[in-house]
Fold this sequence. Notes:
Layout: E1 2-8, H1 16-29, E2 35-41, H2 44-55, E3 63-67, E4 81-87, H3 89-92, H4 97-107, H5 114-122
Parallel strand pairs: 1-2, 2-4
Antiparallel strand pairs: 3-4
Amino acid sequence: MIRIEIANRSGVAVDEDAVADVCRRVLAEEGIDDGDLGVAFEPPERMRDLKREHLGVDEATDVLSFPIDGREELPAGVPRQLGDVVLCPQVVGEAWRAPLVHGLLHLVGHRHGVEMERRERIHGA
């Protein structure tokens, strides 16, 4: 079972049920059926801080991913920690699904390139 913790600190209303549905669908289609996932919605200034801190780029962004276990083999009984996807509603607007899919694909090990773009199309991003 995928357990999702959603935090919205952005100041913008977010359809958390729809977010959870997209996460579960994409992860299931990627072969991930168990694990813990965090999804956070942050304001532009926080996204700017995170991107500067983690990527060395001083600008707000639409989505950042912080993977933990990905698809790694884990010892029996150890829960899979997928990691966190952080989105900025003020940057993505109503088109939050594509950046969310992009972030989820990073959590399960995909990197930018042709294969990731193909996976995004498969997931409707």
